[in-house]
Inverse folding.
């Protein structure tokens, strides 16, 4: 079985494109890697971990086998450590906008950042779909989006020397408040209450900056935006004392995230209930051969949305992908405890009492 | 059986089955009214955001700190907003009426 060089970030040809960097997608890198298949992992979030990292990084999980308790972030970190030998390429902060199959059977995966990835097989490990920013229902908002109004920071320089207003009370809002204050011309944090979801240390830091006169905190609700042609001039905030108008040319809004199935719905795959992808339970393959669906996004009789189910599913799906990516090779089923080939892929030293490879020349056998 | 009334996002009014000790989010999720309950009740995603009928507002156990801080993040917070994962069903809530917030 040959193992091809692993992809760097700029490679566009891989064995498997994994859509979704949650625990299932990350563990897929491992199972594929053991079989000598390389992968690129794509996610709309700007960090790996999916829901575990985005929704409940600090919350304990009690049903991961062999981990009596582990937090969402710890699980993510452990998985990243485990897949490190396989050097997966990540494309984060972008959505898969198009998935097509070429006449030769390979797949073309296009992302919102303009990447075009050529893959032998595709794993959809997208959980409940894509996280999208929750937006205030305010007339005329769209005109300011991506010019003056942002829901994430892609480029810090965008905020340097600007009058920045940040809405929100969670970690994103507080972290960016404490960071962008260094380069902004002025910074005002607006939140509905004095209660913050962000970690206490971030809140303390913000309060210290406020006390030092480096930033303002205003308690209130977003009431409106003023500006012409997408160029923001002021943000109106409804406070207990009435409407306050803050001069601003950049607005960052952190109102949490919504989840939606997104473009997946348009890929012609058989769905259950309109939002889960039907798969077989032999390989977790969808109605399109070569496209597999694993983890919370899939459906089959008896499906349970558990992280441990996703782990099981990717092991079988990886064997399915092998047959597609290496049609002329025989899959040798091996265990990591005893296979020197797998240990080499894992970049670990073989244990001293490992059996000698049957194919090794006889004279290498220790006396 | 005690009854939970929900007004879904199409405006339709439905009566749902209930079970003592269940999270209201779980009742909504499992009866297909369009509540995702993404984080499973950890008070982290707000996909189970509901508006409580006026005559019920004072009768529910009050929201705890983690629910309040999550609610404060929502752009469309209303005075009667609750996260249904933080309301535990008991038959004392018979007739409770909730409206699903916009997704």
């Amino acid at each position: 079985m040959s193992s091809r060089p692993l992809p760097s970030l700029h490679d566009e040809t891989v064995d498997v494109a994994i859509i979704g960097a949650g625990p299932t997608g990350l563990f897929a890198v491992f199972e594929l890697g053991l079989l000598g298949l390389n992968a690129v992992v794509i996610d709309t979030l700007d960090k790996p971990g999916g829901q575990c990292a985005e929704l409940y990084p600090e919350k304990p999980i009690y049903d991961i086998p062999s981990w009596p308790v582990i937090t969402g972030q710890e699980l993510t970190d452990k998985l990243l450590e485990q897949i490190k030998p396989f050097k997966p390429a990540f494309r984060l902060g972008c959505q898969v906008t198009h998935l097509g199959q070429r006449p030769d059977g390979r797949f073309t995966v296009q992302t919102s950042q303009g990447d075009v990835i050529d893959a032998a097989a595709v794993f959809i490990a997208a959980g409940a779909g894509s996280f999208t920013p929750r937006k205030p229902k305010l007339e005329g908002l769209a005109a300011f989006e991506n010019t003056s109004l942002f829901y994430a920071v892609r480029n810090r320089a965008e905020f340097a020397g600007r009058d920045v207003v940040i809405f929100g009370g969670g970690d994103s809002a507080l972290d960016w408040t404490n960071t962008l204050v260094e380069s902004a011309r002025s910074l005002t944090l607006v939140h509905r209450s004095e209660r913050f979801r962000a970690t206490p240390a971030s809140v303390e830091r913000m309060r210290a900056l406020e006390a030092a006169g480096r930033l303002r905190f205003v308690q209130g609700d977003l009431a409106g935006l003023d500006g012409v042609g997408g160029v923001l001039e002021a943000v109106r905030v409804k406070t207990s004392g009435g409407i306050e108008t803050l001069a601003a040319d950049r607005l960052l809004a952190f109102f949490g995230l919504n989840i939606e199935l997104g473009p997946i719905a348009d890929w012609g795959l058989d769905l259950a209930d309109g939002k889960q992808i039907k798969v077989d339970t032999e390989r977790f393959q969808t109605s399109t051969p070569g496209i597999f669906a694993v983890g919370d996004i899939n459906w089959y009789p008896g499906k349970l949305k558990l992280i441990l189910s996703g782990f099981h599913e990717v092991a079988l799906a990886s064997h399915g992908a092998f047959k597609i990516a290496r049609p002329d090779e025989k899959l040798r089923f091996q265990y990591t405890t005893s296979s020197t080939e797998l240990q080499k892929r894992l970049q670990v030293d073989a244990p001293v009492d490992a059996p000698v490879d049957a194919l090794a020349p006889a004279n290498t056998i220790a006396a | 059986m005690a009854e939970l009334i929900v007004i879904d996002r199409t405006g339709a009014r439905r009566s749902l089955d209930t079970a003592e000790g269940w999270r209201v989010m779980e009742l909504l999720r499992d009866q297909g009214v369009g509540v995702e309950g993404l984080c499973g009740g950890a008070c982290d995603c707000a996909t189970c955001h509901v508006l409580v009928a006026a005559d019920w507002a004072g009768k529910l156990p009050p929201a705890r700190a983690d629910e309040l801080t999550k609610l404060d993040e929502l752009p469309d917070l209303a005075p009667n907003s609750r996260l249904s994962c933080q309301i535990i069903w008991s038959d004392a809530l018979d007739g409770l009426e909730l409206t699903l917030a916009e997704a």
